[in-house]
Design brief:
This protein is mainly alpha-helical and 130 residues long. The chain has one domain (6-129). It contains 2 helices and no strands. It is rod-shaped and about 165 Å long. The chain starts with 5 loop residues before the first helix and ends with a helix. The relative contact order is 0.04. The chain crosses the membrane at residues 107-128. Keywords: Coiled coil, Membrane, Transmembrane, Transmembrane helix. Residues 53-80 form a coiled coil.
């Protein structure tokens, strides 16, 4: 950006008049400095944004990698839990079978005891009758 617009400079040169402006050359110099500072600041902001975006992207990749590893570990633990559940189910089935056999044995023992008691009562009654 020049100190004065080119069109104004050409017009002054053609008429050979001294230019009258509302702003002094110092104002235009300061305006140029502000413009340069704005461009520099804008560039730094863009660079900072790009750098932050890259850092965020890298952090996301690292986090996704760690999450994937944790998912694998969770899947392995789920597999182990399923195996333990299967073993517990087998033990429960064995326990149920044993319980059924024990119940049957209890009924058999009770039946045998009832038979023996009835037999002894029969023998005792027979002996008393004689």
């Amino acid at each position: 950006m020049s100190a004065m617009p080119e069109e104004s400079l050409r017009e002054i040169a053609a008429t050979n008049e001294q230019h009258h402006t509302l702003a002094s050359p110092e104002f235009f110099f300061l305006l140029q400095r502000i413009d340069k500072l704005d461009e520099t600041l804008t560039k730094e902001i863009k660079d900072g944004d790009q750098k932050l975006a890259q850092e965020i992207k890298e952090s996301n990749q690292r986090l996704e990698s760690r999450i994937d590893k944790l998912d694998l570990r969770i899947d392995k633990i789920d597999g182990r839990i399923d195996k333990v559940d299967g073993r517990i189910d087998k033990i429960e089935n064995r326990f149920d079978k044993f319980d059924n056999k024990l119940t049957t044995l209890n009924y058999f023992a009770a039946g045998a005891l009832f038979t023996l008691v009835t037999g002894f009562i029969g023998v005792i009654v027979t002996l008393f009758r004689r």
